Amino acid sequence: MDPTPVRLAAHPAYAGTPLAARTLRPVSRGMETTVTLSPEGAAAPVPGATGTEPAPSSAPAGLGAASVVALLVLGAALLLLALPARGAVRIKELADVQGVRDNELFGYGLVVGLAGTGDSERVFFTQQSVAGMLGRLGVRVEPRDVRARNVAAVMVTARLPGFARPGAHLDVTVASLGNARSISGGLLLVTPLTAADGQVYAVAQGPVQAGGYAAGASGSSVSKNTPTTGRVPGGGTVERGVVPRLEGPLLLALRRPDFTTATRVAASVNAALGDGAARAIDPAAIEITPPADQPDVVALLARVEALEVEADGRARVVISERTGTVVAGERVRIRPVAVAHGGLQVAIASTPLVSQPSPFSTGRPGQAGAAAGGARTVVERSAVPTATEESRQAVALPATASVEDLARALNALGATARDLVSILQAMKAAGALDAELEVI
User: Fold this and answer.
1) Which of 144, 262, 348, 401 is deepest in the core (most CB within 10 A)?
2) pLDDT at 187
């Protein structure tokens, strides 16, 4: 049975010449296979081939177009298998090793060298701090005698990472505690930083870099960002380190607890270290027992953190009523539902009504206005409220199976982002939104 001929009129060499599927002839050259098209009943010349001598080939002589397509499909499948799974992330981004965490440090200090933007005399604790500091340096001064606007009392905070050794440097944050207008350009004096146990773990000192400014004159002022908060990059020095112990069974704490994710993490660790090396205790913790042949815990954790797992989680829609922002996750679905939403706008127009006396109206000498017994100008306002409600028909939303379908369905409503906040809340109450609604 002859196949239906195909005419290629776009190429002058094949104009009007029927082509049949049997004219597909593979020509093999080593590892390369070329498929050529030739007019029916004629042999197409192949570059590099002379006469009828077959070219040397390592492939079977009967390799046809179907075999070539099969090879291409097989190569694409192998390439897809080599790629990581969709949504797979490293365990390092999903969990933390229990005990390896940052520790909060804080302290009270003084920032000096301000250009008249420090605390005023009404902030008495700043004066006491200056007097106490000078007293430790051998200078006796009464707190009430301190009259300096170039000093500001500040709180200093920092985060001490796990395994931080003495001598390491930290970035510290400085915030004004009094009524200073700006701490930009000031110098933070030596400030001990303590933890919740009252022990000193670091000391901070250095120039303050504020991300804003403030200036004013003659009742006018201009400011940018918050000039009363700044940072001292590398201004903290660790004096006492915190070294967690990595012994015995190790616990991985998931940042977002989930049964499915915990099970997948345990399975991935078992596949890499051997059966029984990990087990999910609960949705938030996975216990890892180091094998006897791998005593190096650091190398073991580095290997575990590099494993990739496809994380799972609840379908969630996050909305912000303040900004009208709506963010929907990949697994958010909606059921068939009919939505009718109309906006109500209320406007109040205020019009001033001025009643002015006639010309040459006078009162009693030495008095003015109503006390003079004469006429005066009266200004009143007339308010006219108006309400406008949009008339919209109900829109039937079909069930969705992907984020694209969800976006298309919500766009069909023609509502603004702020309207979507109310619509999604109503859909959740009606049971048509298969997702967790989180309002921030």
Assistant:
1) 262
2) 95
